[in-house]
């Protein structure tokens, strides 16, 4: 009788242990990340830990009628370099037709010509921020694209989920 009870307890533990494993996997899978891709390279998945390990910069800027805030994040150029975008030398040829598409969780999208992010051409100061006034982003995050210095913040994307380098060139017919 005692052996039968131990077997029932053991069999009762198996579903419980499986449920714990599934819940643990679901928690890890729900950690916010930004998918970054560039043609010819394996995509990256940047989570908070990966972004924290990258060089950060700070800027004071304001959007719309908000007071200025101190924003902290990673330059978009640095993220694109790690994804394999050809920004390690001055752009030329087909690369000048490439563009970067930033997508938010609500499917809002903006684009930059890759040349805007080349320091020898446009040198736009776009950055993926994860902090505002020393705190993690609240309703705008966890990641937001900032473009300090633009006349209006139309390309300041909240809740960024994807950054893609797209080859915009076409082969001649």
UniProtKB/TrEMBL annotation:
Provenance organism: Dyella solisilvae
InterPro entries per the UniProt record, alphabetical: OxRdtase_Mopterin-bd_dom, OxRdtase_Mopterin-bd_sf
Name this polypeptide is given: Molybdopterin-binding protein
Domain Oxidoreductase molybdopterin-binding: 69-168
């Amino acid at each position: 009788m005692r052996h039968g009870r131990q077997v029932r307890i053991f069999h009762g533990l198996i579903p419980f242990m499986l449920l714990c494993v599934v819940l643990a996997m679901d928690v890890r899978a729900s950690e916010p990340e930004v998918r970054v891709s560039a043609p010819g390279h394996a995509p990256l998945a940047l989570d908070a830990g990966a972004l924290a390990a990258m060089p950060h910069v700070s800027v004071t800027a304001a959007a719309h009628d908000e007071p200025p805030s101190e924003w902290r994040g990673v330059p978009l150029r640095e993220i694109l370099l790690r994804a394999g975008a050809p920004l390690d030398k001055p752009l030329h040829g087909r690369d000048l037709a490439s563009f970067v598409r930033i997508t938010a969780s609500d499917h809002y999208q903006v684009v930059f010509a890759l040349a805007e992010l080349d320091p020898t051409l446009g040198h736009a100061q776009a950055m993926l921020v994860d902090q505002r006034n020393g705190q993690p982003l609240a309703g705008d995050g966890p990641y937001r694209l900032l473009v300090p210095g633009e006349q209006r913040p139309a390309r300041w994307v909240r809740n960024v989920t994807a950054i893609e380098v797209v080859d915009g060139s076409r082969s001649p017919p």
